[in-house]
Amino acid sequence: GAGVSQTPSNKVTEKGKYVELRCDPISGHTALYWYRQSLGQGPEFLIYFQGTGAADDSGLPNDRFFAVRPEGSVSTLKIQRTERGDSAVYLCASSFSGGDREQFFGPGTRLTVL
Amino acid sequence: KNQVEQSPQSLIILEGKNCTLQCNYTVSPFSNLRWYKQDTGRGPVSLTIMTFSENTKSNGRYTATLDADTKQSSLHITASQLSDSASYICVVTRKGGNAGNMLTFGGGTRLMVKP
Fold it and tell me: Quick one: three-class SS letters along chain A?
């Protein structure tokens, strides 16, 4: 498809477990962003990739969160030792070159930590 | 501090009626302002983008306005349809740099259109 895709769409896990969330950006987009959105709120920035490197990871809440983009396309957000407070929708977005170019969002992964 | 405030938080209107959503921001330096529509369980989709020099822009039944002096924007929806039920998020982009957090998101207005 032409849009940003994310898998899984829903993930339920138990407290303390490890989870991986995947994002497939729009082909040719060098910039990729991860956001976290709590119910009734706007998305909060987590991390930004330009190509393969994390250009800005200032939004990651703590060292349990990590993301990779080894080949400059698909990205994986990894959460270790999940906590109930990690429950949220995790959105991925991509843009052609970063900066103030329009970001196109995926449908999100709804993570529930029991 | 860069902030985007939206009002109302939620709104219920009858099908066919018009409504206006508000957005106030303090983001600086300003690059552009976008209104996004987010359907339940979906990612946000851009409706309009406005730069500093633009006062109004339309996209079908959606009309956005921008007053860069007062740092206010509005989104007017005309002749609402059931499919307009969604959250509408105001997003302001800072100018310059290549940081990841250049976008500041409002909390959204949740609109429900009833038949």
Answer: CCCCEEECCEEEECCCCCEEEEEECCCCCCEEEEEEECCCCCCEEEEEEECCEEEECCCCCCCCEEEECCCCCCEEEEECCCCHHHCEEEEEEEECCCCCCCCEECCCEEEEEC
Residues A108, B108: C-beta atoms closer than 8 Å: no
B100 interaction partners in chain A (CB closer than 8 Å): 33, 45, 47-48, 55-59
Tokens of A108: 């999100």
Strand duo B19-25 + B4-7: pairing:
antiparallel
pLDDT of residue A19: 98
Structure confidence by residue, pLDDT tens digits, B14-53: 999 999 999 999 998 999 999 999 998 889 999 999 998 8
List chain B residues with CB under 8 Å of A105: 36, 43-45
